[in-house]
Specification:
This protein is mainly alpha-helical and about 450 residues long. It has 17 helices and no strands.
Length: about 450
């Protein structure tokens, strides 16, 4: 994507957005299919062992997503200014930070895996499975973190197609290796639940090798060369500090959001197993509608960063409006389709007619509010592109901790019951949109927007 292109903004936005949306959806599908493999071919205990490890993975990914978000903003600005040496300096610094953090996690996690699983309360009957799976995954963290950062910084220079190809390749390798190592195809050892961990590692290592060859062959801006290697061997601490300053709020927001999710699950569980099953199905449907909304927010942030880097701050309003319209059209269309075909969609995850009816009724309460969520993500994404990260984060945390959680706790104890929890979700999304839009319109737009680098 060229920030200096004369093509209509909506056209450039669409070309960038579609591969990004597909990537997010495929990533979710990959995890779902891998879980099906393990659950069907190994057993419920193996699936439980993977689930026990998930909180660790989510916490580590939150930090790396923060690092990636910060570096993507800076790379977007440098790319907008056509400062390729600066792009490589930022990329090299981020890659080195990812590798070092990954090595630390691999060493500490590999040594104290058993103690970590004990702290997380892994049940005795599956602890040995959880420990084995977690140890392999943690030792593979340097490569996994590198994979996350590489695909993220590619998006910073406007390339969403290469990360999409990379994800497809990773998925294909992982989905072939998992059953092969579970069933012992081609004379391979039968590894049980560990197969999923080794398959994931095989997937991202294959992608890293592919990217090294592919990017050099096509002479891409971020292709590995002496300049990038020099930036990795001698990272810029000032750039690293700025990257973390921009990225840590995003990671912290993810962690707080996940903790809030755990509390909500506890509230839902009080209503019985049908309610829990409905919560799971509803979460699946909502996630596939939220992915496009989140993708639009990411695209808006990168477009805004590139405009700021190119000293085209006058384009920021048009970028925001384009993203809001895209959200209204794309997310709105998905919400309408989900309402029209709600019974069939829910039946993909649940077979019990009573639980299907319950899930449908909850969808009616909350699904529309994802359009509002998408709008809030656009406003916060554009503001973050300029380095305004703390206020958007605080607004989001206020809506989660000040509206969603207390609202869910209070309303679930009224006659609304289970529906009250989802009314609280919708209320928090509405408040998030109003507050982010207000700060954008009445405070942020009045500031002088300048490039950070």
């Amino acid at each position: 994507m060229d920030p200096h292109s004369t093509k209509p903004l909506w056209q450039r936005f669409s070309v960038f957005l579609i591969p990004l949306m597909v990537s997010n959806i495929l990533q979710s599908l990959s995890g779902t299919v891998n879980s099906i493999y393990v659950g069907q071919l190994v057993g419920v205990e193996a699936l439980a062992a993977i689930a026990t490890y998930f909180p660790i993975l989510f916490f580590l990914m939150s930090f790396m997503i923060g690092l990636s978000a910060g570096s993507t903003t800076l790379i977007g600005q440098a790319w907008g200014a056509r400062d390729i040496p600066k792009v490589k300096a930022i990329a090299g610094t981020a890659l080195t930070a990812a590798i070092i953090f990954g090595i630390v996690i691999a060493i500490l996690g590999g040594i104290w895996t058993e103690e970590i699983m004990a702290v997380l309360g892994a049940p005795e009957n599956i602890r040995h499975l959880a420990v084995s799976y977690a140890r392999i995954s943690l030792i593979g963290m340097p490569g996994f973190f590198l994979f996350l950062v590489v695909t993220s910084i590619l998006r910073g220079v406007g390339d969403t197609v290469t990360p999409l190809f990379s994800l497809i390749l990773s998925m294909v390798v992982s989905l072939l290796v998992t059953p092969a190592l579970i069933l012992g195809w081609f004379g391979l050892p039968q590894l049980g639940v560990d197969a999923a961990a080794w398959a994931t590692i095989s997937g991202f290592l294959t992608v890293l090798i592919f990217l090294f060859i592919y990017m050099r062959a096509r002479n891409m801006p971020l292709a590995p060369d002496r300049v990038l290697l020099g930036a990795m061997l001698k990272p810029d601490m000032k750039l690293l500090g700025l990257t973390l300053k921009l990225g840590i709020p995003a990671g912290l927001q993810m962690v707080i959001s996940s903790i809030a999710g755990i509390v909500v699950v506890g509230l839902v569980n009080r209503f019985g197993s049908d309610a829990t099953a409905a919560y799971g199905a509803l979460g699946q449907v909502m996630s596939y509608v939220q992915f496009p909304a989140m993708s639009i927010g990411i695209a808006a942030s990168i477009f805004a960063a590139q405009a700021i880097g190119a000293r085209n701050q006058h384009q920021l309003g048009a970028i925001t409006r384009t993203a809001l319209v895209m959200n209204l059209i794309i997310t709105g269309a998905l919400v309408i389709l989900a309402y029209i075909f709600s019974e069939r969609v829910v039946a993909l995850f649940i077979t019990d007619p009573e639980v299907i009816a319950l899930t449908e009724s909850l969808l009616q309460v909350v699904l529309w509010s994802i359009v509002l969520f998408g709008g809030s993500v656009v406003f916060s994404g554009v503001m973050r592109a300029s380095g305004t990260v703390y206020v958007p984060m605080l607004i989001s945390l206020f809506c989660i901790l000040g509206i969603e959680l207390p609202g869910a706790i209070w309303l679930s104890q009224t006659e609304l019951g289970l529906r009250g929890i989802w009314i609280a979700y919708a209320a928090s999304f509405a408040a998030m949109l109003v507050l982010q839009a207000a700060w954008y319109q009445f405070v942020w737009k009045k500031k002088k927007i300048e490039a950070l680098i």
